[in-house]
Specification:
The longest helix is centred in the last third of the chain and has 22 residues. A hairpin with a 2-residue loop joins strand 3 and strand 4. This protein is of the alpha/beta class. Helix 3 crosses helix 11. It has three domains: 80 residues, Immunoglobulin-like; 164 residues, 3-Layer(aba) Sandwich (D-Maltodextrin-Binding Protein, domain 2), CATH 3.40.190.10; 102 residues, D-Maltodextrin-Binding Protein, domain 2, CATH 3.40.190. It starts with 6 loop residues before the first strand and ends with a helix. It has 16 helices and 15 strands.
Length: 406
């Protein structure tokens, strides 16, 4: 992916124990690309059975890398911008007497989730609240929550399913703002399997592509199959990452859960939508109503010291959502890193935003307790939780949005 945000990274010259490598998992990966350097470090450790994950991602120009090289460490400061365009936060800083507060936010790499955050960053809504938000893109909806639990980031923006499952393992975290209470996903066949698959029971013995194992996509598919009398244990769930489009197009999986613009592109090539959860009526039919999806999470131990900052995040996102209701689709897509757009097809993505705009933009940022409870009930139904293991009030903080808007 392109550099999606400002990221501050420190890389020691000695390898970190547990860092991912191509072989023995004992040193960082450094992958050189033409004119640029892509650096990834990830470490894992357990604390009382709870997995903690530390992830840092950055991309810099080769010349910047050489200039920043020092004997014992490499210190990188990466600013997100497109050619010829200054970063929005830099533009704001030039006319603002006080410096912006830098905040690191672990972020999932799903395109549909990125829109309000990238638009808020590009158009200065975070800067207006005195914040320089570094969106650190990670793979899947659970990785940002794991990074938060591990202490690598200030906030985690990921799936609510991951929040609940982390709390079930003992994590002390809470979601305080919601940016999505609709799945925005479609269970779709590959073009080659459109004539062979017509109902959920047909998925038995088939492969289903998902962004991550145990994530919300897999949980929802398992739930829908069980309700339809099918056995999800007979499905092979295959991890394909956030951009599943090519794998489905090339028939590497039989079906997958995808977002726009991949949905439209695949339908144009002859694929069949088995369940389109982007349609609120369809989502209500299969899930029973609103389903808590994307939002921002904080460590509860830091809640009081970060409360003012949390309110500023809420206000910035609220301004952004109001802006998104009337802004052109082109303006919104311009804010999205092009690498996140499946097939690179901006036109299809812009058309999907115009078509689904009402569902994409939350009416309010307050967390809906019934939508959160529905997610907990689903996780219990598919066997990810024991009955009563997690209460809604353990996972959400309703006061922040209320106070921010007062």
């Amino acid at each position: 992916m392109d550099c999606c945000s400002g990221v501050s990274v420190v890389l020691p010259t000695d390898p970190m124990p547990g860092a991912i490598t191509s072989k023995r998992l004992n040193r960082p990966i450094l992958k050189l690309k033409w004119r640029s350097l892509f650096v990834v470090r990830l470490s894992r450790q357990t604390d009382g059975g709870l997995e903690q994950v530390t992830v840092v991602v950055a991309r810099i120009k080769r010349r910047q890398f050489v200039q920043g090289l020092t004997g014992a460490a490499i210190a990188l400061s990466v600013n997100s911008c497109r050619p010829g365009e200054p970063p929005s936060s830099q533009t704001k800083t030039q006319s603002t007497p006080t410096a912006l507060k830098k905040v690191n936010m672990g972020f999932c790499s799903y395109l549909i989730c990125a829109i309000p955050f990238e638009v808020a960053r590009k158009h200065g809504f975070f800067a207006e609240e005195g914040l320089d938000i570094n969106l650190i893109y990670l793979r899947g909806g659970a990785a940002p929550i794991q990074a938060l639990v591990g202490g690598s980031v200030d906030y985690g923006a990921g799936s609510y399913d991951a929040v609940v499952q982390a709390v079930a393992k003992g994590a002390k975290i809470q979601r305080f703002v919601s940016t999505s209470n609709t799945p925005h996903s479609t269970l779709i066949t590959s073009p080659q399997n459109a004539a062979k698959l017509s109902q959920l029971k047909d998925l038995e013995g088939r492969t289903v592509g998902v962004g991550e194992l145990g994530g919300s996509a897999q949980n929802i598919v398992s739930y829908m199959m069980k309700l339809a009398g099918a056995n999800p244990d007979r499905v092979q769930f295959t991890v394909l990452g956030p951009n599943i489009y090519d794998a489905v197009r090339l028939n590497q999986v039989d079906t997958a859960m995808v977002n726009e613009p991949a949905t439209t592109l695949l339908l144009q090539q002859g694929a069949k939508a088995l369940v389109n959860l982007s349609d609120p009526d369809v989502a209500k039919k299969y899930l029973g109503g609103r389903y808590e999806g994307m939002g921002v999470v904080v460590r509860t131990a830091e809640r009081e010291q970060r409360l003012d900052e949390m309110k500023r995040i809420v206000r910035a996102l609220n301004k952004c959502c109001n802006f998104m209701r009337t802004a052109s689709a082109k303006t919104l897509v311009d804010a999205i890193p092009k690498e996140l757009i499946a097939g690179g097809n901006r036109g299809v993505f812009e058309a999907s935003i115009d078509r689904d705009r009402k569902g994409l933009i939350p009416e309010e940022l307050a967390i809906l307790p019934d939508a959160a409870q529905r997610a907990i009930d689903l996780l219990t139904f598919v066997g990810k939780l024991q009955p009563g293991q997690v209460k809604v009030e353990q996972t959400i903080d309703l006061a922040v949005v209320k106070d921010a808007n007062a």
